[in-house]
Specification:
Layout lengths: L4 E10 L2 E10 L2 E6 L2 H10 L7 E4 L4 E4 L1 E3 L7 E2 L2 E2 L6 H8 L2 E8 L7 H12 L6 E7 L3 H4 L3 H6 L4 E5 L11 H14 L2 E5 L3 H11 L2 H7 L2 H5 L3 H18 L2 E4 L5 H12 L5 E6 H5 L22 H13 L4 E3 L7 H4 L19 H10 L6 H15 L17 E4 L4 E3 L18 E3 L2 E6 L2 E5 L2 E2 L18
Parallel strand pairs: 1-4, 1-5, 6-9, 9-10, 10-11, 11-12, 12-13, 13-14, 14-15
Antiparallel strand pairs: 1-2, 2-3, 5-16, 7-8, 16-19, 17-18, 19-20, 20-21
Helix pairs in contact: 6-10, 10-11, 11-13
Length: 474
């Protein structure tokens, strides 16, 4: 049987199985997984059979389904500037890190309809994306946008986003809008993603501390002081309450606190299978002591990084299954852009780069430190995201019929993070100087090799826009 590519001699890891096997690819699909496929193909060629099968030797390496980062912001207008990574640099970075699918957010601005927002984000990606992509749709004007959600679901975009904060940007949703959106998602077989922070108390704390004396003394530390853990926890509890009452599927994005993890666990114990929560790589390995450093303002993100106790609880939540995925919330700003704060922490462009380091962070600090096994790792960075976002089994698994989205990683080889060597447009990294394993030696996107020997070799425009039928059905 003729194959285009065979990945040979590796250890194939899925969420439910780890085994020595070869992976055979024809066109864009995986057509067979089993032992001895490469040897058989080579024997057929020597016997005069068809030639041309490319053999990729993965001896001593893990062969995993490509990572899926379900939470990225590329070329996002925000905080008075535009995030530095677009669909060129951002998806090249994804590929280098073994991520083969990204999900961005189409956000309406001004009087945009949901359709307008989607078309604008499609244009950002068209001709640039090097890996596959799709979109969540932000619902920012409930009274208008609620009538447009059916159109988005029909078009293949069944995940919606609301923000409990960002009134200044015109994005904020109140409790009635959130409750209504959850009801609408139940009706449409869709899912609501929620940015959970309690705006009224948050705004009060910001106002109390927004004075020249404290800003001069405390600088970027005020970013953490004004966002204590209860700001997130109270909002998560409220969102879970509305999900339970409305019956709609809820996905809490970028959860950063131990208290939030406890709330999700209690919801699951009550039998709420319509409630999901992700965390991000930065919340697992960074803590708020960084804000006291001279360049502490660089680390401002929203919600902000918390404490080591929160890291520990989040890792436990991942292991227990209460936290279902790890993403990045990538929103890249350069040193020059971050310098816009000029000593006022409320003006820092909030966000961190991270697409290229997602898998390495979770692998190095999860698998290599015995917090996760390899199957759990694959589940958290690929299979669960695919299932929950309506991409499975086309994505998120190495199996016959799935897209040939594959990352090959060496279990021990480490690289020292250097922003100048990364694909991102950012001139700094939160992990600068860290030694990380888990970078992709080889990345395949729908059967095409886009990273070879740790070097990007793909092409702009290869990435395909994905549509989905439903979400929240793991």
């Amino acid at each position: 049987m003729m194959y285009d590519t065979i990945i040979a001699n590796g250890t194939v890891v899925n969420a439910d199985e780890l085994k020595k096997a070869d992976v055979a690819i024809r066109g864009e699909k995986i057509v067979q997984v089993g032992k001895g496929l490469a040897k058989k193909a080579l024997a057929e060629q020597r016997a005069g059979g068809p030639n041309g099968t490319r053999i990729i030797d993965a001896d001593g390496c893990y062969v995993i389904p490509g990572g899926i980062d379900v939470h990225v912001h590329l070329e996002l207008p925000f905080c008075g500037t535009v995030s530095a990574d677009d669909y060129d640099s951002g998806t090249k970075a994804a590929a280098r890190g073994g991520v083969t699918t990204v999900i961005d957010f189409a956000i309406p601005y001004g009087d945009d309809s949901l359709h307008d927002a989607l078309e604008k984000w499609k244009k950002k990606a068209a001709g640039k994306a090097c890996v596959d992509y799709t979109f969540h749709i932000a619902v920012t004007k409930w009274d208008r946008h609620k009538h447009e959600m059916q159109e988005m679901v029909d078009a293949g975009f069944p995940t919606f986003k609301q923000f409990m904060i960002y009134a200044r940007e015109g994005w904020q949703a109140d409790d009635a809008a959130i409750f209504g959106a959850l009801e609408k998602c139940r009706e449409l077989d869709a899912m609501l993603l929620i940015h959970a922070e309690s705006s009224r108390v948050l705004d009060e704390l910001i106002e109390r501390h927004h004075n020249e004396d404290e800003m001069k003394r405390l600088g970027a530390r005020l970013h953490a002081i004004t966002r204590p853990n209860f700001i997130e926890a109270e909002a998560i509890q409220r969102a879970v309450t509305w999900a339970e009452a409305a019956g709609g599927r809820l996905y809490v994005v970028h959860m950063s606190t131990a208290e939030g993890t406890d709330i999700i666990r209690r919801a699951h114990k009550r039998g709420l299978d319509n409630v999901f929560a992700e965390t991000c790589a930065q919340y697992l390995v960074l803590d708020d002591s960084l804000f006291a450093k001279p360049d502490g303002h660089l680390y401002a993100c929203c919600p902000q990084i918390k404490k080591k106790a929160d890291q520990k609880r989040l890792w436990q939540g991942l292991s227990d299954g209460d936290v279902c995925a790890v993403s990045t919330d990538t929103c890249t700003f350069t040193r020059e852009q971050k310098a816009m704060w000029n000593g006022d922490w409320t003006k820092i462009p909030m966000g961190l780069p991270g697409l290229e380091t997602l898998l390495p962070i979770v692998y190095t600090h999860g698998v290599r430190k015995d917090r996760l096994d390899m199957r759990e790792f694959v589940n958290l960075v690929s299979t669960n995201p695919a299932r929950i976002m309506g991409l499975y089994p086309t994505k998120g698994v190495i199996a016959k019929g799935a897209d040939a989205d594959i990352a090959i990683i060496h279990p021990k080889r480490k690289f020292r993070v250097d922003c100048e060597q990364l694909e991102t447009n950012c001139d700094w990294s939160p992990y600068q100087g860290w030694d990380l394993a888990g970078f992709a030696r080889t990345t395949l996107s729908r059967g095409k090799v886009i990273v070879d020997d740790y070097t990007f070799c793909g092409q702009n425009g290869w990435g395909r826009l994905l549509t989905r039928k439903s979400a929240g059905n793991p």
